UniProtKB/TrEMBL annotation:
This is Pyrroline-5-carboxylate reductase. Belongs to the pyrroline-5-carboxylate reductase family. Catalyzes the reduction of 1-pyrroline-5-carboxylate (PCA) to L-proline. Transmembrane segments: none annotated. It holds the Pfam family F420_oxidored. Residues 162-266 form the Pyrroline-5-carboxylate reductase dimerisation domain. NADP(+) binds at I10, G11, G12, G13, N14, M15, A70, V71, K72, P73. Keywords: Amino-acid biosynthesis, Cytoplasm, NADP, Oxidoreductase, Proline biosynthesis. GO terms for biological process: L-proline biosynthetic process. GO terms for molecular function: pyrroline-5-carboxylate reductase activity. SUPFAM superfamilies: 6-phosphogluconate dehydrogenase C-terminal domain-like, NAD(P)-binding Rossmann-fold domains. Pathway: Amino-acid biosynthesis; L-proline biosynthesis; L-proline from L-glutamate 5-semialdehyde: step 1/1.
Length: 271
């Protein structure tokens, strides 16, 4: 027997699929999920996970208590206007859109029960991180429901000011891309030194994952763990010297500021 629909993804692309996959893995099936996306090829993947799908807004949306808004910020206003007729008073909206303010979504939807979140794509493997902000009109029950939904994808951190969602975007939302660039660079450096692509990838991935796990589990600061690797007069200090000389910490800070600034620009341009 088909299970009752519970969650609707509005937009079924990259971020929604990462989140959906987290739910499917945790629940064993996508039968409680409804996905609305205008691309039939995108929907095929969801159908393979057991989800119900639709190409355009329909009454099926009203069957779902939680709606996850997962279209690009540029598409959000038109999408909100198209789904608005199917909203019920108790529908809980979770937005994952970068830069779009709570006030704009409340206005476009004529609805107050909205939670703003910033997830990341490692949700796909249950190792996501989501920052969330709920306004004072959202009940404790709805916040708990949002946290439960998001916990299928990994960790959840609540922030108490909406503006901090831009900082979350600059750290964990966009962050996987920074780490992928670092991994790409490690692989490129190692293959130039003669390791095969496969060997380099295996070592780069294990190094990044191992270092992150050390920070998570040892209770040591990242700075102390870095010092533990850095033998006096050794190889690590030779490498770190280049990173400092070229200003890596400042480069990272500037990059994060650029991401947060872009979120602010999206807000000004789109709502
Ligand atoms: N990707 C990431 O790592 C992260 C993304 N986000 C946020 O997630 C949101 C989605 O991003 P992402 O998944 O990368 O984007 P995608 O483009 O991969 O997915 C959005 C999907 O929604 C569809 N869509 C757009 N408009 C409509 C419409 N009117 N009706 C039906 N379907 C529609 C798109 O179709 P089409 O392609 O035809 O436009 C596309 O399939 C963004 O707001 C982004 O800020 C947040 C955190 C991380
Ligand atoms: O690049 C973007 O705008 C989205 C938001 C965070 C990650 N991807």
């Amino acid at each position: 027997m088909k299970m009752t629909l519970a969650i609707a993804f509005i937009g079924g692309g990259n971020m929604a699929q990462a989140m959906g996959r987290g739910i499917v893995t945790a629940k064993g099936s996508g039968e409680t999920i409804y996905v609305m996306d205008r691309n039939p090829e995108t929907l095929e993947k969801w159908q393979g996970w057991g989800a119900t799908t639709g190409l355009a807004p329909s009454a099926t949306l009203s069957e779902c208590k939680v709606w996850i808004l997962a279209v690009k910020p540029q598409n959000l206003k038109e999408v909100c206007e198209s789904i608005k007729p199917y909203l019920k008073a108790d529908t809980l909206i979770i937005s994952v859109a970068a830069g779009i303010s709570m006030a704009s979504m409340q206005q476009w939807l004529g609805h107050e029960r909205i939670i703003r979140t910033m997830p990341n794509t490692p949700a796909l493997v249950g190792m996501g991180m989501t920052g969330m902000f709920a306004s004072s009109v959202v009940s404790g029950e709805d916040i708990a429901l949002a946290e439960e939904t998001l916990s299928y994808m990994g960790g959840v951190v609540k922030v108490d000011q909406e503006s901090l969602i831009d900082a979350v975007t600059a750290l964990s939302g966009s962050g996987p891309a920074y780490i992928y660039l670092f991994i790409e660079s490690l692989i490129a450096g190692a293959t130039k030194m003669g390791l095969t692509e496969e060997q380099a990838k295996q070592m780069a991935v294990a190094t990044v994952a191992g270092a992150a796990k050390m920070v998570e589990t040892t209770g040591e600061t990242p700075a102390k763990l870095r010092e533990n690797v850095s033998s006096k007069g050794g190889t690590t200090l030779a490498a770190l010297g280049v990173f400092y000389e070229r200003g890596l910490p400042k480069i990272v800070e500037d990059a994060m500021v650029a991401a947060a600034r872009r979120a602010g620009e999206l807000s000004k341009e789109l709502g």
